[in-house]
Amino acid sequence: MNQQEQIDQYCRRYKIMGMAPKIDEMVKHAEIQGLSYKSFLVQLFEHEAEHREQQAKERLLKTAQLPSRSNLDEYEQRNENGLTKQKMNTLREMAWLDQLYNIMILGPSGVGKTMLAAGLCADAIEKGYKAYFRTMDDIIGMLKTKDFSRSAMADYKRLIKASLIVIDDVMMFPVEKSQAVNLFNFINQLYENTSFIITTNKMPADWAKMLDDEVLATALLDRLLFRCEVISLSGKSYRMENRKTIFGT
Questions:
Q1: In the CATH hierarchy, which fold is given to the domain comprising 65-241?
Q2: What gap in Å lies between CA 147 and CA 30, rounded to an integer?
Q3: Are the C-beta atoms of residues 212 and 247 closer than 8 Å to each other?
């Protein structure tokens, strides 16, 4: 067995897969530059660390379940909708996430609530946070089936360790009492250690009607709004303004 085969074998055995394909190239570079052994080792470890960090981000992006439009660099900035460029930059810096603040994004359909929430989730992942995007229906379904579904339980275990959870389309439809209780218990369990981004087209005062329980709605909002920035978006629907037609005119 030659040296290259030995290196490949050890890399596979100890799962050092980031540096493995680059070793020949890095050895040649080290020889040309006259690097010391320690400098060469540092470069190897740096390359492995970068590879692992990139893999971790890719895994998080996959499990985050982000919608297709989640890049805030492509977000159409509209100062008149209530979100200035300065406010957007502040949100993207993520200081609020370190301070365990929540974000509630209010507004009618089509004004960009979901894209803003998904984009902030993507930014959080890029900065190394464990962040996930789910609709309210996803959360309710997971809570309902986690005790007998492996996939639901796996998702539950991911979410309870999250730094950030986006819950999209909250209170779009009326919620059964048992589901509402499950949702409350879930948020009550996490709100002291996890930040939430909530998107909704219902004002907080309307939540009691959707839950058919004023006491439960008040308790839920009490936890979400305790440390929370409320962003009210307004304006015309992006989808209606950019409506497609089969005739092209």
A1: Rossmann fold (3.40.50)
A2: 55
A3: no
Query: Cβ–Cβ contacts within 10 Å for residue 130, how many?
Result: 18
- Token pair, residue 174, equals 């009326």
**Long-range Cβ pairs for the range 23-31 (8 Å, 24+):** none
Burial of 229 (0-12, 13-18, 19+ CB in 10 A): middle
Closest CA to 177 of 130, 217, 234: 217
CA distance 156 to 168: 17
Q: Taking the domains of the chain in order of start, what are their residue ranges?
A: 3-63, 65-241
Query: Tell me, what's the pLDDT at 244?
Result: 61
- pTM, two decimals, is 0.80
User: How do residues 27-43 score in pLDDT, each as one tens digit?
Assistant: 888 888 888 888 888 88
User: Is the confidence at residue 238, as pLDDT, over 60?
Assistant: no
Query: From the centroid of its chain, how far is CA 35?
Result: 41
d(CA 205, CA 187): 19
CA angle, 149 then 184 then 225, to 5°: 135
